[in-house]
Write a structure and sequence with these properties.
4-stranded antiparallel β-sheet; globular
Length: 115
């Protein structure tokens, strides 16, 4: 059974950094692309970053140059390094797997950027 467990969120001041981690299990991690999404209060969930099995990466425009997605296939983990955080990055961040036309989600981790 697929399980995705996020960690690493918290409260940070503008300009600060956080590193999110998603521990994956229940599938052959190295064979699948992985995603990070976020959802701010009152807004739709949006794709933040995407990484393929071959480490091709894509980002939404608003985080390019600030966020870095990476994966560790030995540890079945996908990471999101977030630098130069801004208040508009405040959201619940979710790890996502799309497999066999189904979406799997973790429970999310809260990131709050505030002074």
């Amino acid at each position: 059974q697929v399980q995705l467990v996020e960690s690493g969120g918290g409260l940070v001041q503008p300009g600060g950094s956080l590193r999110l981690s998603c521990a994956a299990s229940g599938f052959t991690f190295s064979r699948y692309a992985m995603n990070w999404y976020r959802q701010a209060p009152g807004k739709e969930r949006e794709l933040v970053a995407h990484i393929t099995p071959g480490n091709f990466r894509q980002y939404r425009d608003s985080v390019k140059g600030r966020f870095t997605i990476s994966r560790d296939n030995a540890k079945n983990t996908v990471l999101l390094q977030m630098n130069s955080l801004q208040p508009e990055d405040t959201a619940v961040y979710y790890c996502n797997l799309r497999k066999d036309e189904m979406d799997y989600w973790g429970k999310g981790t809260q990131v709050t950027v505030s002074s």
